[in-house]
Design goal:
- The structure is a single chain.
- This protein has 386 residues and is mainly β.
- The protein has a single domain, classed as 5 Propeller (Tachylectin-2, Chain A).
- A four-stranded antiparallel β-sheet has the order 1-27-26-25, with no helix packed on it. Strands 2-3-11-12 form a four-stranded antiparallel β-sheet, with no helix packed on it.
- A hairpin with a 2-residue loop joins strand 4 and strand 5.
- The radius of gyration is 20 Å and the shape is globular.
Length: 386
């Protein structure tokens, strides 16, 4: 679908790396590989916050016969209220690394796939006007960066849920050799965040906490990953593979997987051969039905990465395991015209990755990452869902 208010609002050119958490830690030039996949919420003053993932990459990862990765070297202690440690460069001999992808390299893993990154991601709060079309302020002083070994390779893909007036919860993906985990932050105002620890263990990505309680309980969508899946029986409408699951919690910190399956890839929908959560579900009305609006991504196989699109489902208000309605066609598709002015920075195509939604009465404002490069904002009239 095409929408008149659909544009990139934050690009790599906006980011000032002299104010990066990595600045001054090591002697190597970096650049902004992408400023994308923004978590989104409404602040108490009515402005909208985008929590932008900044992927800061080495300009020359390969030098002196070695390939380098950025890593936070610290044990999680705080000194004077600040994380104790520093960012360092690890050098791997080229003969041990597969460097065909400039964003990462593979190293020997004893039978497992083992990867290192040539970039490190941190989170930058950007305050926007209520229509999310103009920047009000960039809060470099409130940036969130790795602070312990659980996130030594980066903090990625924030998803923010305003569960109550003074209760914001933000999930992030923390990357380290220890585990690829979901970490949680809390805030009373959407700008000042407190680290709450790990809430989901290895490779359970795209955790989206519902923006409100259901019968007194917190609910969330999750998406476990793995290298092995068991087959559905012949003739099943579903295909094996990653799916969107549900979990509940009494306090937003301790989560229990729900027994019922949730949104699963279907045999008749090649565009959902791989899938995962997008924006935290919000309680709203779609086509005369009230429920939890879930925006999620489906991936159609193509070349290495595939084509990422945004789809929607409406979940029952009292029982989110029940799907009341869903769109058969994508709500958002990758838009090459938006990134054409940034052609010299493109390293990936065919990707729109939705990470936030705000209900503004007659329309939804949707935040996405476009091509893992920039932040895209789309105004979608509510009658486009139906």
């Amino acid at each position: 679908m095409k929408f008149p208010h659909d544009r990139l609002v934050i690009t790599p050119h906006v980011i000032d790396l002299s104010r990066s958490p990595l600045a001054g830690h090591f002697d190597a030039e970096t650049f902004v590989l992408g400023a994308f996949n923004p978590g989104m919420t409404t602040l108490p003053n009515g402005n909208v916050l985008l929590m932008v993932r900044v992927a800061e990459a080495l300009r020359e990862p390969i030098r002196d016969g070695k390939v380098h990765a950025i890593r936070w070297d610290g044990d999680g202690r705080l000194v004077g209220g600040q994380p104790f440690g520093r960012f360092v460069l690890d050098a791997w001999p080229l003969e041990l690394a597969d460097t065909r992808d400039p964003r990462k390299f593979m190293v020997p893993g004893g039978g497992w796939k083992v990867m290192a990154l040539t970039s490190l991601s941190w989170l930058l709060p950007v305050e926007m006007t209520p229509d999310v079309m103009e920047i009000v302020a960039i809060h470099y002083d409130k940036a969130i960066a790795p602070a312990g070994p659980w996130a030594c390779y980066g903090v990625e893909d924030a998803r923010i849920s305003r569960v109550a007036d003074e209760q914001y919860l933000m999930t992030t993906c923390s990357v380290s050799p220890e585990r690829h985990s979901t970490t949680l932050y809390s805030s009373a105002n959407g700008l000042d965040w407190t680290f709450e620890g790990l809430v989901l263990d290895h490779q359970n990505k795209d955790m989206l906490i519902f923006e409100g309680l259901v019968d007194g309980a917190y609910w969330a969508q999750t998406r476990p990953l793995g290298d092995l899946w068991f087959a559905y029986p012949p003739g099943s409408p579903f295909r094996a593979g990653p799916s969107i699951n549900l979990a509940t919690s009494p306090d937003g910190r301790h989560w229990k997987p729900h027994l019922s399956p949730h949104i699963r890839p279907r045999v008749d929908r090649p565009a959902t051969a791989r899938m995962g959560g997008g924006a935290p579900p919000i309680l709203t009305e779609v086509a005369g039905q009230r429920g939890w609006l879930s925006l999620w991504h489906g991936v159609e196989p193509k070349e290495i990465v595939g084509i990422y699109r945004t789809f929607w489902s409406l979940l029952d208000e009292a029982d989110p395991t029940r799907i009341l309605a869903e769109g058969e066609v994508p709500l958002l598709e990758p838009e090459p015209a938006l990134t054409q002015p940034l052609e010299d920075l493109l390293y990936l195509r065919d990707v729109v990755f939705t990470t936030g939604v705000v209900d503004q009465g007659d329309r939804f404002i949707i935040a996405s990452g476009e091509a893992d490069l920039a932040c895209r904002i789309t105004h979608v009239p509510k009658d486009a869902l139906g």
